[in-house]
Specification:
Elements lengths: L16 H13 L16 H14 L3 H12 L9
């Protein structure tokens, strides 16, 4: 018989959260150009969330891609900023 699969336990929280966050940022900074490195969290009503998801589906996009495009249109880079 084969041995039962080993189960990984929960990962412990880092002793120094700031160092842990900086380490994750360092890893993503070497990614290909255009990589998204920040997360934006907003609160919306369930009704609005549903409308957003339906609009994205109708356009054949993910919600994240649709909202990125919307934010890029509404907040274009100013002169001197990297795009």
């Amino acid at each position: 018989m084969s041995a039962p699969p080993t189960r990984k336990g929960f990962v412990l929280r880092p002793a120094n959260p700031e160092q842990w966050i900086k380490a994750a940022e360092a890893k993503t900074s070497n990614d290909v150009a255009g990589a998204f490195t920040a997360r934006l969290t907003i609160d919306v009503t369930p009704d609005l969330r549903g409308r957003i998801k339906i609009a994205a589906f109708g356009r054949g996009q993910t919600v994240a891609d649709m909202l990125r495009d919307l934010l890029a249109r509404e907040f274009p880079p100013t002169s001197g900023e990297a795009s």
